[in-house]
Fold each of these.
Amino acid sequence: MGKDGELELDGVDVRLGARLAELRSERGWSLGELAERSGVSRSTLSRAERAEISPTASLLNRLCAVYGRTMSQLLSEVEAEPVPVVRAADQTVWADEASGFVRRSVSPPHAGLRGELVEGRLRAGADLAYDRPPVPGLEQHVWVLDGTLEVTAQDVEHRLDAGDCLRLRVWGPTRFRCPGPEDVRYALVVVLP
């Protein structure tokens, strides 16, 4: 945390931008080709690659879908080498301030493991919509630790209170909403198909 409680994510954003540029380059795509594939404007893609903006959760989700990765896989690629014990102080925290979403990578992807563990926090009233899964058929387990979370998947809304767990495979759009009045904190287990 920086002064006034602001998250210091500049280094992560710079490494993330470089990794996004590298992924595009590996495929030989221009910014225009990536824009067509992802539905994100060329200027936004360019600014994200140059770390002039901090990408939103929605933007990263679209890019992950194009690159066939989960968000955690992408973020783990900009972290140091994974270790067996991930200390709380070493867990990568990423925030989308505009949407009120904070994501902590508790157990990031690791070679030989298909699962990962994420802690999510949404402000009361926050509403995150993903137009597609980063990897079709992705298995998710959403366990609410504090507050209330509404998750919509396959056009079915699930209201989860503290202690409730939703298990699903993600094939299409999803939505995570915190109806309030308090913020919600949840654990998300993600397992690659």
Amino acid sequence: MAMTMNGEIQLAAPRELVWKKLNDSDVLKACIPGCEELEKTDDQGFRAVARMKVGPVSARFRGKVTLSDLDPLNGYKISGEGEGGVAGFAKGAAKVDLVEREGGTLLSYHVDAQIGGKLAQLGQRLINGTAKKLADEFFANFARAL
């Protein structure tokens, strides 16, 4: 099952600080819902473990996250893939853009993702609702971290 999600959030912080925090594994770990581990593996990679619950399906996903197309202070592409055992798999990528606006930074994102296994059997509406909730929670946490 494939899904697409777009959004933006106005952050009350300068673009330099937003960029720095988007590249800080401790900040990302604290902001990602359900994240149990996030370790830097190289300049553009991380190993991650996160516990997620989507409807009646709960799973612990292990995977990797890679940063690419780095354009300091302007944005990057973040890609990831994870395995959740019998619950299935998830993989996707997000293009993140930063623009100075109204005394702060406008962060916009475009996500393309795919899921399979039991998760994909739950239905598009439940998956999309959960994905939107997780994105909103991440950005609320990130705004507080700034």
